Amino acid sequence: MTTTEARPTDRKPPQLVDMSWDPITRIIGNLGIYTKIDFANREVVECHSTSSLFRGYSVFMKGKDPRDAGFITSRICGICGDNHTTCSDYAQQMAYGVKPPPLAEHIVNLGEAAEYMFDHTIFQDNLVFVDFCEAMVKATNPGVLARAERTEAPRGEIHGYRTIADIMKAFNPFEGEVYKEALKVSRVTREMFCLMEGRHVHPSTLYPGGVGTMPQPTVFTDYLSRLMRVIDFVKKAVAMNDDVFDFFYEALPGYEEVGRRRTLLGCWGAFQDPKVVDYRYETMNTWGKAMYVTPGIIVDGELVTNNLVDINLGLRIMLGSSYYEDWVNEDPFVTHDPLGNPVDMRHPWNQTTVPVPQKRDFDDKYSWVMSPRWLDQRTGDHLALDTGGGPLARLWSTALSGLVDTPYIKATGHSVRISLPKGESLPETTLEWRIPQWSNTIERDRARPYFVAYAAAMALQFLEEAMGMVRAGETKVFENYEVPDEAIGCGFHEAVRGVLSHHLVIKDKKIANYHPYPPTPWNASPRDMYGTPGPYEDAVQGQPIFEENGPDDFKGVDIMRTVRSFDPCLPCGVHMYVGKGKTLTTLHSPTYGANHG
Fold first, then answer.
1. Cα–Cα distance, 200 to 215 (Å, whole number)
2. How many CB atoms lie within 10 A of CB 344?
């Protein structure tokens, strides 16, 4: 971990204690976090991320009719199933050589925008902020709560709360005003979603080639009326988040180190531009850069590439600590991409999934999650990219690329400006998300409400363009196609919590190979064959502990804030080991002079 300030040299003899959180229940697997915590020096010294569930979609997709792929892969997740359907349709459209009509693209974009607004709101306000609410802070950092009660909220004229503690109280589960209002907003945004995609969360009107949504004017006006009802909530949410997170930096010096890791972010892009996209692999770089969320890979603050062809070719699925048999000695499904570039055996197009169940061993195999990595051709490093919970990578990549320039969104090269119209009580507002100093817990969480605003702003543009088409009589929403005997395809999209890709190989009109890679394998991956830890492990391991409780009543709030900042699907079923822990050993610190005196 890179520190922002020098660690004290007068370190105490370590007091190492084993502590675990297992399971953190998720839709796509059971997450467990196993740590060793040094309570003498208040830091996590070791972390392992495990998944105890094998699902095997890549196994039972083989032999299926490829046209069923979107409906089947939607069931990968009970929260963001529509993201899978959308991404699967993108991959199929490449394989079939079909381009949906422009109005269909706007309908898909409107559905996905509603999904981002729904999911980010319910996650941030009803799950993440339980860890920042008055009740939790009182139990873990009473000194911080006392300071919050004395601290005026800088943006109170926007959100209406006088002190930071007042905001924290509004986050209290089941009772807080914001907690309850967010549930109402999530209902409205889910209705918006269903207007476009038919059913939440497994859409009934999304197909390769277009949509089954009837493009009547009332469909769009009903969406717009609901969007305008939540616009002011979005503005208030950004202000409240900024107030609380700025306060934490001030109240707990050094808190930037919580969940901090090297800036290694991946974004696969979202919101297709109907005027540019044709789903051909040969033009993927062009239509990828035309997306309204720009794809990109960021390493140490530098945009390495925003070319989807380069992003695709760099994908590597690694083993190491995973319960699988290697496939590198098998025959490849794909040797070269449509541009003639060689395709690696560890690429998803060539992956074969052979599970090998065994006992968990943190020195060997300990997780059902594989280890997706991206090969940086400049250095030869296999990078353990993370998604920043989704919004951090999306905003960072879009900002650095500087390509998005719409009436509502402007990427500046160092920030993203988001313009929202006048709502019921608040005036027209321009928000600006700026590239932060760190990729850490607070900045992952801070980016989330900004991206809700981003999705709302883009929805306004999609509505205007879609309604213009309907008024002009352009109401076609589906293009027919034939399934080829042999083909390959890849879809790139952003699930709510980050990068999502589907890779498809068709032979004899059936699926010969299919591999979906959602954000969770990237973020929750275990140590790979080179010993590189996954993002959860890397972010937790080495972070300081600011909770005031000791081992006997430790709640692990800093650790949980870090894990949740990645939006690990829906971590609402956390079961904490509440014993006193197991003392492993007490040793002298290896720093100079520790053994003297």
1. 19
2. 17
Q: What is the pLDDT of residues 513-540, one digit of tens each?
A: 999 999 989 999 999 999 999 999 999 9
pLDDT of residue 222: 98
Residue 67 burial (CB < 10 Å; 0-12/13-18/19+)?
middle
Report the percentage of the chain scoring pLDDT > 70.
93
The mean pLDDT of 235-246, rounded to a whole number, is: 98
For residue 569, CA distances in Å to 127, 261, 345, 454 come to 11, 20, 29, 21
CA distances from 206 to 57, 190, 201, 210, 301 (A): 20, 16, 12, 7, 36
Q: How far apart are CA 84 and CA 89, in angstroms?
A: 8
pLDDT tens string 149-200: 999 999 999 999 999 999 999 999 999 999 999 999 999 999 999 999 999 9
Q: Which helix (H) or strand (E) holds 43?
A: strand 43-51
Taken in order 212, 218, 223, 224, the sign of the CA dihedral is positive
Residue 244's identity, in one-letter code, is: V
Plot region of 301 (φ>0 → left; ψ -120 to 50 → alpha; else → beta)? left
> What's the rounded Cα separation, in Å, for the pair 117 and 66?
30
Rounded Cα distance, 450 and 429, in Å = 13
Q: At 592, phi and psi to the nearest 5?
A: -60, 130
State the burial class of residue 596 (Cβ atoms within 10 Å of its Cβ: 0-12, 13-18, 19+).
exposed
Residue 476 identity: K
Alpha helices by DSSP H, 21-96: 57-60, 69-73, 81-96
φ/ψ region of 380 (left if φ > 0, alpha if ψ in -120 to 50, else beta) reads left
> Is residue 577's pLDDT more than 60?
no
Instruction: Say if residues 196 and 215 touch (Cβ distance below 8 Å).
Output: no
Task: Determine the pLDDT at residue 200.
Answer: 94
DSSP secondary structure code for residue 297 in this structure: E
Q: pTM above the 0.90 mark?
A: yes
> In the predicted model, what is the mean pLDDT of the chain?
93
Binding-site residue numbers are: 77, 80, 569, 572, 575
Q: CA end-to-end span of the chain, whole Å? A: 30
Q: CA-based angle 475:479:483, to the nearest 5?
A: 165
Q: What percent of the chain has pLDDT over 90?
A: 88
338 Cβ neighbours under 8 A, 6+ residues apart: 281, 282, 488
State the average pLDDT over residues 457-463: 98
Q: What does the alpha-carbon distance between residue 327 and residue 346 come to, in Å, rounded to a whole number? A: 8
Q: Which residues are annotated as a binding site for Fe cation?
A: 80, 572
Kindly tell me if the per-residue pLDDT of 262 is higher than 70.
Answer: yes
Averaged pLDDT for residues 555-578: 72
Q: Which residues are annotated as a binding site for Mg(2+)?
A: 575
